[in-house]
Amino acid sequence: MTPLQFAAKYLPEDDRILLRIGHADKEVQVWLTRRLVKLLWPVLGQIAVKLVDKRATAPAVRREISDLQRQVALQQADFSTPYKQEREAIQDAPPLLATHLVLKSLPDGTTALRLQDTRGMGVDLPMDAAVHSGFCELIRKCAAESGWDITLEYDSRPQPTATGGLH
What is the pTM of this model? Predict the structure, then answer.
């Protein structure tokens, strides 16, 4: 999997989360609105379920495995390394305003989450347990700081498919 580095910050003057996705020497910036975060969280729950070993068929077992995977990934995650600021922006334009979410199955059997705008421009985030857990934690922290009055709780039970933005 391609190494990614994430940084996310709630910006009250824009009432949005600015997500910065660093890869090698390039960076993509994406705006996440309250509406999109509300759509995103159940989709991240669906990804958590997909990350669980397919041999575990009982829902309770899948939940336990998902919870353990998240705990291990968060313990191994590096939240102390500062985000590398020197990356060249991939887009010279302002940050991408994400309005749609697309789940993609990759040839190796993993899942990628695509954040895209109304024109179909976007960025793909390959999701393994480590990336998923770190990404979820960043989004949770930013949502808590936002004052948006939404609570993002971990729940690895299958969630209903979000409507309006998931393709």
Answer: 0.72
